[in-house]
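Appendix B. Worked example

We walk through a single record from start to finish. Start with the input: the chain for ATP synthase protein I, Lichenifustis flavocetrariae, length 106.
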Amino acid sequence: MTDPNDMHDRLAKLSQDLEARTASAPKADQGLAGPNGIGSAMSTGFRVMSEFVAAVAVGGLIGWQCDRWFGTSPFLLILFLALGTAAGFWTVYRIASKPTRWVGPR
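Next comes the structure step. The output line below is what the pipeline stores for this chain.
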């Protein structure tokens, strides 16, 4: 059998080696986290895409329903699709023009 003191020494050496290796290893998710990381950029991109698609879809549905009510097919559909597209671009512009927090040089 091995001596318990020897086991504790080996465990301490292993812990030190693991800490040294962990400290020297590059961070794999360094670009993913934080306010300027790729995760934040993807979140903003998905928000822009979903709000633009929603604006166009809502405009199209309103135009289609108004055309059914008033019998003016396809004029109101085209009009409200254009308005929905304009609203979508306006939303994209508002999101893109928000000032971002400047972190400074790294």
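Two observations about the output. Residues 38-70 form the longest helix (33 residues). Residues 65 and 77 are 8 Å apart (CA to CA).
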